[in-house]
Amino acid sequence: MSFERKLGVMLSRPIAYLFFMIYLIQSSVLIYFVYQYYDNQQTIFYQQKTITELEEKLKVLDIINDFQVGFDQKEVGALANVIHDESKKYGYDPRLLLAVILTESSMRKGQVSDSGAHGLMQMRPFVARGVAMRNGLEYSEELSLFDPAYNVRLGSLYLFELILKFGDVKKALVAYNVGETRLRNRLITGEKMPQQYLRKVMERYKELCEKYPHG
């Protein structure tokens, strides 16, 4: 009968094979349970992430429903989704974007300013067209700016462009209101940065944070 030596113990070949097979089976079972554990942990993580995102969207939806004027529920739902998604994409607190919308248009449907700015974020057509062209987005007619989701998508992107250009959220907000060139000229000549619009946005933002806190 042939024998194999393992750790100083003489084993017959069949017994050695048996122990080897048991080792393989135990290892396979261990690997399976480890895999199942991490797979379950990943599933729990994604489920929790989905729940968190849903809670965030519901909070945005609550704010919109409390302030909006003239939108139907389908538009409100689409608006909540786009505000949440664009805020996440650019690193905004959704309440800041909502504060800008409330300051610009009071969240009223179909708003047009004396200067020809359209929609929720009061985008002027030539500004909106430029933002769309620079970023490879579709832009057709001015009526597109009355689509609340499209208007917010372009407006939030434009604000993000200004943040990158000025390196400062407050300056970007002022530039959103008075125009990039006008603000740059004031800064170059040493004039004070306009504060009225910025103050309104920040007051709105503070109100929203107090009324709709995180968590």
Describe this structure in words.
With 215 residues, this protein is mainly α. The protein has a single domain (3-211), classed as Lysozyme (Orthogonal Bundle). It contains 8 helices and 2 strands. The protein has a two-stranded antiparallel sheet. β1 (3-6) and β2 form a beta hairpin. α1 (13-67) packs across α2, α2 packs parallel to α5 (148-166) and α3 packs across α8 (196-211). The relative contact order is 0.08.
Structure characteristics:
two-stranded antiparallel sheet, 215 residues, 8 helices, 69% helix, mainly alpha, Lysozyme
Total domains, how many? 1
How many strand segments? 2
Which percent band covers the strand fraction?
A: under 5%
- Biggest β-sheet: count, sense, barrel? 2 strands, antiparallel
Tell me the series of helices and strands, N- to C-terminal.
EEHHHHHHHH
Average per-residue pLDDT, rounded, comes to: 86
- What is the gyration radius calculated from CA atoms? 29 Å
Regions with little confidence, pLDDT below 50 for 5+ residues: none
CATH topology: Lysozyme
Tell the overall outline. elongated
SSE class: mainly alpha
Number of helices: 8
Residue share in helices?
A: 55-70%
CATH class: Mainly Alpha
CATH architecture: Orthogonal Bundle
Distance from first to last alpha carbon? 72 Å
